[in-house]
Amino acid sequence: xxxxxxxxxxxxxxxxxxxxxxxxxxxxxxxxxxxxxxxxxxxxxxxxxxxxxxxxxxxxxxxxxxxxxxxxxxxxxxxxxxxxxxxxxxxxxxxxxxxxxxxxxxxxxxxxxxxxxxxxxxxxxxxxxxxxxxxxxxxxxxxxxxxxxxxxxxxxxxxxxxxxxxxxxxxxxxxxxx
Length: 178
Ligand SMILES: C[S@@+](CC[C@H](N)C(=O)[O-])C[C@H]1O[C@@H](n2cnc3c(N)ncnc32)[C@H](O)[C@@H]1O
Fold this sequence. Notes:
The chain is built from five helices and seven strands. It has helices spanning 2-9, 45-58, 72-87, 92-103, 127-136, and strands at 31-37, 59-70, 108-109, 114-117, 120-123, 140-149, 169-177. The two termini are 27 Å apart.
């Protein structure tokens, strides 16, 4: 990603591409805009708080940030679609068991919102949690909407089972100012 960004910006004189760790970066009142696209994925709540605070610090007064993160509610909604679909094929207890298997329930922590596979852990966000984190980090004018993913096979929803007639799955899209 960094290499591609450098290539794409190579002819722009006022663009510098740097690779930094959000947990350790120390920029103060420096940027008009900050984007974080599916990068706040660390499962540690303490680390997320630090990263969001560092993003806030890095913005100028009235600077704006745009953040996209995975949605926990979208995952739960997908569970609902799976259940309704399974109920057409089998009785309720079996349907519920199948949904738990399909969702990889043993790999999910629904309280703290993350997915675990071996050593890999990835954070998913509840709406209330996202609002809380942004407010605590000092953000104002917080607006959170959905960025929806197409059910089409070439879209970003990977190997999620598809329900093209239903409302789409989504990530959370944040717009907030300092
Ligand atoms: C799922 S990828 C998303 C990449 C790209 N933004 C996109 O949307 O295609 C997650 C990215 O977050 C970055 N990342 C994870 N932890 C980070 C941290 N502490 N500081 C900076 N970047 C981090 C990873 O290097 C990786 O590039």
